[in-house]
Amino acid sequence: MTASVPSLSDLSDEARSLLKTQSIELPSWAFGNSGTRFRVFTTAGVPRDPYEKIDDVAQVNKYTGVTPRVSLHIPWDKVDDYEALRKHAEDQGVTIGNINSNVFQDEDYKLGSLTNSNERIRRKAIDHHLECIDIMRATGSPALKIWLADGTNYPGQDSIRARQDRLADSLAEIYAALDDDQELVLEYKFFEPAFYHTDVPDWGTSLVHCLALGDRAKVVLDTGHHAPGTNIEFIVAQLLRLGRLGAFDFNSRFYADDDLIVGAADPYQLFRIMNEIVSAGALAPDSGVNFMLDQCHNLEEKIPGEIRSATNVQEATAKALLVDREALDQAQRAGDVLAANDILVDAYNTDVRPLLAELRESQGLAPDPMKAFLESGYLDKIRSERVGGTAAGWGA
Ligand code: PSV
Ligand code: MN
Questions:
Q1: Which of 30, 42, 217, 367 could hold 210 in an S-S bridge, CB 3.0 to 4.6 Å?
Q2: pTM reported for the whole predicted model
Q3: How much is the pLDDT for 4?
């Protein structure tokens, strides 16, 4: 049994160092206004441009110490000078992470982008990705992240097979344009905005395309992109076995692609996912898995929402690191179902908040990042300074 409230010294040296070096990439779009198709509510002080989004990312990193990278979304984060944006980020201890392409908000893409039967439109979608690769070079980004809204609404609307062929062809051209040290990560989603069929609906389809492309093509698992009841940790385990889990888009869902704070809906699921990661040795920064958030804060304040998300992932990770692997292995080999399950549940039920507070203090951070941020006055500052201009928003 794990002690009821463990301290940092109860972790092995390896586990402690993994916790210390854990890092989570933040989505630039989490800091802008967002909502649903019914209403986008505004929040005072939201960034007006990518520079201000990065300032807010740096705040989350300043208080949590675990979010040193930001994902950009193009064209939402288009700027004239990407070198300057990169420098602005680096001056604040933040690097540019994945570049997300966006071929879902242009009239031309109504019937598809990389799968479109219209060669002019398919060309335009490929060219957008080539532009993203140039942005990766300028910003030092390691991976191009692709999520497609492509699909159909009605049986017979288009040939499912021909669309797969066009997709494979488009992806091959994009992949060939990458530099040797750049990766392509392909995200899947089972429905929405298409309702009959989606061209990359599941991890199997994403994997099939990645395998055809080459070693530097990997799958992105967005935790909100599965049918209810899907065993996500199984997918994590399988993709890790194959060395093809490229990145997570962490968030929570109750119904569809809700994009709520990770760990809010089902913290036990998040723990089970982190348990697979830890048991496969895939937590280390050089493991090749990019732990990202893909969230929108429609009601809550954005920066505190991201702080809560980062600490939720940290808590799930600390619990996974507390699992007694040796005892678990023994119980599993002995076929002791309840003992094995109890070892996991015991770790999950452990309060790791004091341990994480201790970790932060050992790194010169405040023990409670949320409290420290709220007391810093930053929210008042941006509310009074960020007036005028156009508030950034999902889709703007
Ligand atoms: C699609 O639902 C998605 O998960 C993709 O990652 C997009 O890039 C992102 O959401 C936009 O919020
Ligand atoms: Mn996503």
A1: 217
A2: 0.97
A3: 72
